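Internal ticket - ligand job 1653, adenosine-5'-triphosphate:
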Amino acid sequence: PNKPATESSGDVPDKPAKAVTLNILDVAGNLQLTQGMIDDFVKQHSDVISKVTYSKGPAPELAGKIKAQQNANRVDIDLVLTGTDGLAAGREQGLWTDLLTKYSDRLPGMKDYLPPAQKMQELGGKEGVTVTYYPSGPLLEYMPSKVPTPPKTADDLLAYAKANKGKVMYARPANSGPGRTFLMGLPYILGDKDPKDPVNGWDKTWAYLKELNQYVDFYPSGTADTMKSLANGSANIIASTTGWDINPRVLGTVPKEAAITPIQGFHWVTDAHYAVVPKGVSTDKQAAILQLLQFMLTPEQQAKAYDKGYFYPGPAIKGVELAQAPQESKDAITEFGRPEYDKLIADNPTEVPLDAKALVAAFDKWDREVGGSKVKSQ
Amino acid sequence: MSGFDQLRLDGVTRRFGAADALVGLDLTIERGEFIALLGPSGCGKSTALNCLAGLLPLTAGAIWQDDQRIDTLPPEKRGFGMVFQNYALFPHLTVRDNIAFGLRMRHLPKDDVRRRTTEAIEMVQLIEHASKLPGQLSGGQQQRVAIARATVLEPTLVLMDEPLSNLDAKLRLEMRTEIRRLHQSLGLTTVYVTHDQEEALSMADRLVVMRQGKVQQIGTPEEVHTKPSTWHVADFMGYRNLLPLKASQMNGDQVTVDLGGTAIRGSAQGAVAPGDDVIAAVRPEDVKLSDQGVKGLVEVVEYQGRERAVEVVLDGGGQDDPVRLHVRTEQRVEAGEQVALTVTPGRLLVYPS
Amino acid sequence: MSGFDQLRLDGVTRRFGAADALVGLDLTIERGEFIALLGPSGCGKSTALNCLAGLLPLTAGAIWQDDQRIDTLPPEKRGFGMVFQNYALFPHLTVRDNIAFGLRMRHLPKDDVRRRTTEAIEMVQLIEHASKLPGQLSGGQQQRVAIARATVLEPTLVLMDEPLSNLDAKLRLEMRTEIRRLHQSLGLTTVYVTHDQEEALSMADRLVVMRQGKVQQIGTPEEVHTKPSTWHVADFMGYRNLLPLKASQMNGDQVTVDLGGTAIRGSAQGAVAPGDDVIAAVRPEDVKLSDQGVKGLVEVVEYQGRERAVEVVLDGGGQDDPVRLHVRTEQRVEAGEQVALTVTPGRLLVYPS
Amino acid sequence: MRQIRATPLGWVIWAVVVFFFVNLAGVVLSVLVSSFGTKWFDTWFPSGFTTQWYGDAWREFTLFHVIVVTLLVSALVVVLSVLVGAPAAYVLARKNFPGKRLVYLTFLLPILMPPITYGIPLATVLYKFGFAGHLSGVVLANLVPSVPFVILTMTPFIEQVDPRIEDAARMLGAGTRAVFLKILAPLLVPGLLASAILVLVRTVGMFELTFLTAGPDSQTLVVALYYSMSAAGIRAQQSVDAMAVIYTGMMLVLLVVALRFVNPTQLVARVKEEPSE
Amino acid sequence: MSATWQHRLAERGVDRRLWLLLPATIFVLLLFVYPFLYGLSLSFQPTDGGGVLANYSKFFSDAYQRDTIATTLKIALPAALLNVLAAVPIAFRLRGRFRGKRLLTTILVVPITLGTVLTAQGLLNYLGPTGWLNRLLLSLHIVDDPIRLTNNYWGVFFSLVITGFPFAFLLVLSYLSGIDPTLERAAATLGASRAQRFRRITLPLLAPGLATTFLLTFVLAFSVFPSAVLVGNPAGSTRVISLAAYQAAYEQYDYSYASAIAMVMGAVELVVVAIVLVWRSRLYTGSTGGKG
Ligand SMILES: Nc1ncnc2c1ncn2[C@@H]1O[C@H](COP(=O)(O)OP(=O)(O)OP(=O)(O)O)[C@@H](O)[C@H]1O
Ligand SMILES: Nc1ncnc2c1ncn2[C@@H]1O[C@H](COP(=O)(O)OP(=O)(O)OP(=O)(O)O)[C@@H](O)[C@H]1O
Ligand SMILES: [Mg+2]
Ligand SMILES: [Mg+2]
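stdout (structure tokens):
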């Protein structure tokens, strides 16, 4: 059933000897943004890629799967679409092919990255190619009917939480994008010593979170639960991001009336999706993938990343306007998007997220000292 | 539950699907009686016993204990003891615990339980097997456990379903005596199912002979043995010779029938008229080899210890339907010998066919 | 597997834990023989049969079929048939399917299977029950299914473990004849376990009498019946009167013993010298009520059909250890009567005790 | 036919059962309703109904194919694990032999050990021999916990069968295979069914080993379900509900089919059943 | 092999039938034992260096991790016990024949199909602060504030009961079907009341099956993972040991440590299992008369 591993370490030709089929594994939900691009490429360049099979899976087990394949010398996943966590996990285990050292010139689109996307690409190192980008958060989302005067500052939030026990909610950071964005964004808001060093540099953040913890009932295990709580009224204010603000309202899981508010002095903690190639993929396939990635980094294709606000805005390169996006996309964002985002994105600084090690340390500390303290206090 | 004076079965009927296993059983059991249910395999003996014990709901009829109707009581409320035909020993309990089970259920003091259990184990001669599980016992040993388990309780009514069938003759005799002794000394009332006439005759005060779910005859052992009410009962009670003959002459209840050319007297059992087709019944042990009488040829001889079971084909019987007589004798005869037979006077019973 | 000429058991032994269930059984079975294993409950009969069948591994010894050692073959390779003491019917199969099972295992043509199965069902008189499940049958019916299931295969050796114990007397007689007939007409070799001496005597060519796992005597029915080798065998073979006496006089193998003050002649079985403690054995039917002889008091009378079983306490026996004689008689006697007894000459056996 | 007898304790038990099921119905219905709902905020029922979530899930995960694969995998796993496990259970139930404890422990471990410990090396082995990435690999990997599972559940059932029944079959010329097929199998129907259903449930729900060994064509429903539930990114609550309903629906169909074939309470001892009243 | 030897071995249980063990043994050896040993050795090779036992001492010296054992046992033992104990009387009542039995059994078994995800979603929907149950209680004024039944211990417990009960029920019902009802009837004639019959006859004969059932439900409950995350409070009161292993493996990517935690998990289970098995081996485990 498996194709034997063909040559994977030699030079990558410009074009595969004959059209290849690609197995793409998406562990970040990225296909929602990019499947259209890939399908278009296959349609237009069937001499390069004859067929693509998609599979999807949760991120954490990804590394194990690739590792098993590589140990057995039979890699049958050719391209992985992942977030920063999967990318880092794989890198730590040495799973990814170094594509960019030799072949970055085949990806001219990478020169047009938006500046923050460029910074995200630096996180991607020589293995990951940024395909989509968004500024993320932290933002607070609330129901105007329940919270007439939303908190403007971190202290406001604390005061509100104290006054409305259990009504402020964020998900366990390890399981939730908005949760971790909130965590990583706090040091900037509170002016901590070293926002990149969660263990030694986040004194104010930890103190703040512990205090907030007193007014929180529990931390759901996913963002979806916080959204649901917001929608059904059991939470009034939750942590959110641009994408998590727009898309759930498009989908109808959160009422359209929900509003967002930034916290004074916040920095965007950005996020991106990457394409990576596991070691052991044949050079022919690598060639095809390089062509595919270059195709995906063109503005016409990047415009598809607007989607329905899921990764708002989405495109990683400069000069991609909403107008270029498919009609569906435009309609959704016209109805549910927020004009204020343009200004917020323009006016607030952007920061790359913590690197994998620091992030794991932050999660661990949060689990033990914030989330875990619940065990003792009960 | 203390004793009772009378137990009345009133039209007790049990059907399995469309088949009648037991039909309209009427029987009154007096306190202290020993009653044997007797009949061929499948005639409904176990069914009757199970109905009495409360293990099978009745299809119709009622059971009265003195003035109380008990056929709706669950088995444990009736306080009867039962020995099951397939033993139904508790596979997870040792012999001792099997036997002690009922006593423990009655919450007797520990010492009492131990003493009475030990006595019962001794009675059935299983001392060295007391701590074995039923699966480690021989068939006969299992049966003895079942007997001990039921009788150790000294219940007011004991029901026994062929309790001795797997025992050897010697032990069977001993157990018979033991059961009778228990019955008498404890003042039990016993209903005893058996297929062994001798057992029934020797143990019971009254016999109930059944056939195909119906009672054929109820009577003392002597009545049933000497005056079976139908030829079926006779058949079952060891009248092995059942001869389809013609009645020739009547004299009171004396009938004359023709057997192999010889006229023989018998006593009529039921309405018989001269010229009728009748069935004449006689036991092998009531037919004697002698110098004169009905002539015949010895066909089969079977050694049975002191006696021999001999099968004689009568002369003059039809070619394709020869008349055979079973004879028991202490004489030495050989197959092929020519013999003459006489029937002990008064021992030939004549039934309408 | 086609037939064999001889089956040899050579020191066959089986132990359960520390207990010997069967010790050094030596027995040669000739083709076509009908052998009965006889002995009290728990003596190892079933164990012997199971060893022969291959269902129990031997602890020691060997089994030879002609020149082939077969005690290591699994049961299904030996090609023997077996009737189990507890029937072991397949609870999920109807009577018909139970009986057809073995034939199906031999992949016989469908028509053959049907025909032979039907014949077997007829033989055991279960036609109207053919489509019942075993759980819906009476005990006797189940046993008949077990018999039919084993014999329908016409195996070279048939092993039967008390196959008739749950049947009534009439059916038992019929089945006996049927089994003998099958044995002869199919040229089977049969090993038959029973606890019923009469059955053993009437059916078998040779008897093996066992006690506590050991063979006591092997011989023809007549030998075993008239000359039991030990008093244990005598006991088991119906010599219900076993009297501990003293030998007074010897004359060849004629011994004189003193019974209740009367000198009686018996034949010595084994080394007996004057003055020895001996055990005198005599059957109840060989003791006659008469006008003179040993005197005694009738204690118990049991009705047993034509005959009565009478227990007589001899005069002059010790107060605490009275000597009792069991007698069978056709005479009417009552408990409390004074009687005199004689022993049929030549029927008293005297064993060293 | 017997009515359920109403002792006081009986009433209590049935009351508890009914209470349990009323709440369970609430649990299930709330998901079902939600999976068909458009928007459902702080109200008793959603504001509208739609089948959109099912359509989306169906297309996004090519569920038809996934379901076919799932059925195939679970059927194979059930059949194979019974074939391999039942004979072993037989030996463990019937025989005492030297080293039995060790063997027993070896069979216990795969049930006790979480797949984290052996999942990745197992997948490596399966990739090495070319099974993984394909249906056969998924089946083999799932057999690892299933075979011991069958062994463990079947052992008590086999213990319950009187060995003399088997002896009788052997005496009638039945070899081991025939004894298994004609005697044990029918007698063990309740046990086989129970363990088959449980293996089925576990297999259909076994995410980890399946994910590690599945290729693009051999994903099962549970992988899709876990993805929809825990993948990064945004997914409507209702679409997870819809996936869960599809998952349950499939299991339900399998269960009902299984129960149609064999009644779990079909007693072999049925003929000796409590007398009907 | 000499026949004597063959007898010796046969008496000890070594005979041809042992071959039946072969397929399963080979299978487990090939596909489990090797990978498992690999995992075991991995647990002795800590990523961060240190001695062979570094992972284990790390686990046991860290209260945050060590406590997961107690947390897990606190959830798994009661849930497994409840499932088995509840299954017994219900299954017991479902023996025999009566109208609607098949339907009733099917209904009782159906929750087995729900799966963790649907159960979790359902519990969150139904028992959540604005779920139907709380709505009902609030509108009937039985409570003033919504009761919290999810995202804590109870959520996980309920989910284990919902998924575990039918499982236990199915097994118990089947084991029960193997017991010959005649035995109970025999006990009845010996004067045993319903309760006594159950206690003295049915229960002991059922006990080996119950032990197995308990083991299986316990093992399932002990490795509870998705529901601990979804309906529990994974950061706090329901931080079960499998979650600790999961975090080590998939959040911190320390497979070695994860293996060690999983080994500890297996060992704890093994202790419970061993206790139950030792107990079981003292029970009567033979024919229960029902099938022959
Ligand atoms: N559960 C049942 N279903 C159908 N028929 C049954 C059932 N139980 C018994 N029978 C039938 O009822 C009849 C009477 O059975 P019963 O057990 O009372 O006979 P029995 O007189 O005890 O015979 P035996 O001496 O052989 O034990 C038999 O023909 C039997 O086949
Ligand atoms: N599995 C076992 N474990 C221990 N002892 C056993 C086992 N099976 C049989 N025995 C013992 O071995 C002895 C012989 O048993 P066996 O079944 O051969 O007797 P039997 O002659 O057939 O008796 P019966 O006529 O009562 O059936 C008995 O004392 C019995 O208790
Ligand atoms: Mg009967
Ligand atoms: Mg026996």
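Auto-summary: The pocket of adenosine-5'-triphosphate (ligand 2) is lined by residues B 129, 136-141; C 16, 19, 21, 39, 41-47, 85, 195 (CB under 6 Å). The two ends of chain D are 6 Å apart (CA to CA).
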